[in-house]
Amino acid sequence: MGRGITFAYGLASYCAFLGTILYTIGFVSGFGVPKTIDTGQAAPLSEALIVNILLLSVFTVQHSVMARKPFKKWLTQFIPSVVERSTYVLLSSLALILLFWQWRPITHVVWHMSEPTLAIVLFGLSLFGWLLVFASTFLISHLELFGLRQVLLNLTGQRQAEPQFRTPMLYKIVRHPLYLGFVIAMWATPLMTAGHLLFAVGATAYILVGIALEERDLSELFGDEYNHYRQRVPMLVPLLRKHDVDKATAIHRANSEIC
User: Which residue in 18, 77, 79, 150 has the fewest CB atoms around it within 10 Å?
Assistant: First the structure.
């Protein structure tokens, strides 16, 4: 692949991501898009559960497997390494587009905050979550995270620098502010339907598994530097440090043994 073609491919993949993430905001929050998490063709509950779980599984498997080193090594036998990240971003976007297209709404109400002020607060908190997602990507190199920096460097004949461990701003408060933003955005809603709840539970479960896999890779890459960071900074909940979790776990075990 020539430099111009790889750049065009990377740019197209980035544009696909940008359109998809903006649609995701409307899809989850319930505004501004043709189909949201609670609209679309109705289906029997059993069908809706099966289809929706399969859609979430497709995204989860694609997102997790393609992020692992063995798969990257295998994939770059067939495509240039410079577009590996762009390919990951493109296929992630396509998996989300499939989910939007085939999602079956389950409109049974779990909770509905009818009080206007509280509803506005929850909606604003959801938007804050999305803002936190975008802010986190720019703190750690937005263009590199979504594959555009790699093809830009290739276009200009520059080499990719070796990865360096950094903890800018939000990363000094929690280790994964990007994932925290997603969790807030998915759960902070004045109207929680069964379908929205299924989406939120599935995505949160994936996030927790993804964090475990990602931190294993980061520990291998940066060694003690990252391990010390894990001990100092909480994973998702600000001020909740690892030793606090370990202490709470120990107390719970002691109480269980007494009982």
Answer: 77
The pLDDT, as a whole number, for residue 1 is 62
Helical ranges in 140-193 per DSSP H: 142-145, 148-155, 177-187
C-beta contacts of 110-113 below 8 A and 24+ residues apart: 110/192, 110/193, 110/194, 110/196, 110/197, 111/191, 111/192, 112/190, 112/191, 112/192, 113/190, 113/191
Q: What is the mean pLDDT of each run of 10 residues along the chain (259 residues)?
A: 88 95 94 93 92 95 88 91 93 95 95 92 95 91 86 85 82 92 95 96 92 89 88 86 50 46
Q: Is 239 left (phi over 0), alpha (psi -120 to 50) or beta?
A: left
- CA pair distance 121, 184, nearest whole angstrom: 12
